[in-house]
Design goal:
This protein is α/β, with parallel strands linked by helices and 209 residues long. The chain has seven helices and seven strands; from the N terminus they run E-H-E-H-H-E-H-E-E-E-H-H-E-H. Helix 1 crosses helix 7.
Length: 209
């Protein structure tokens, strides 16, 4: 069982990074092999909209992209994992550009014939909802503003899951981060640890069936 955490914050050791790391520790406690990927440390270029990756060679598990960066290797790891945790702070009422760029380039995991106009692409290797994912969003606004601050981020980060057939386990919004006391911080760390445990348990249940 392998679970990968993707951090969309430009601060690897910031609050979002710490919460993500604790979620991965929770998953690890249930026997998962875990890895945290700091997107700020990866070389991912912007999608250029050429459509080659999802219009050609449907037999490939990952469409070929003409851009020479780290995205191909990141997607190789992605399709081999059993679970994911996407984590991003709220920047201007949405996910960071780092996370958005990564998600855009995941389009290479899909295929659509060039003549199939006005249709959604299909997954090259559908997960049949056996793979699981959880989402973490942090924001300065309080927990009561989850619909305004959290939901747009959850929607953006999970946009490909329906196509990939990845089951979403949890959506966690941690608000009011500017006014955290040590007690609240510890409570949120425990919350994310337990979320990691839950994600791993859901994956284990699927693997044992």
């Amino acid at each position: 069982m392998k679970i990968i955490g993707y951090l969309g914050s430009p601060k690897p050791n910031g609050l979002t990074g710490k919460l993500l790391k604790n979620a991965l520790e929770g998953a690890k406690s249930k026997g998962a092999e875990v890895k945290k990927i700091d997107l700020i440390k990866t070389h991912i270029e912007h999608c250029r909209g050429c459509t080659n990756c999802y219009h050609k060679k449907p037999e490939l598990p990952i469409g070929k992209c003409s851009i020479k960066d780290e995205m191909a290797s990141l997607l190789e790891e992605y399709i081999q994992a059993d679970g994911y945790i996407f984590a991003s702070p709220v920047y201007d009422v949405n996910i960071t550009s780092l996370m958005k760029k990564f998600i855009e380039r995941k389009i290479a995991l899909t295929y659509r014939h060039k003549d199939d106009h006005a249709k959604l692409p299909e997954a090259r290797s559908p997960a049949d909802f056996k793979k699981k994912a959880s989402l973490l969003v942090t924001g300065n606004c309080g927990d009561d503003l989850i619909e305004v601050m959290g939901e747009p981020c959850f929607e953006a980060m999970s946009s490909h899951f329906m196509i990939e057939q990845v089951w979403m386990v949890d959506k966690i919004y941690v608000g009011g981060v500017e006014s955290f006391t040590e007690e609240i911080f510890n409570q949120r760390m425990e919350l994310l640890y337990n979320a990691g445990v839950q994600l791993a348990e859901e994956i284990l249940s699927e693997l044992e069936d």
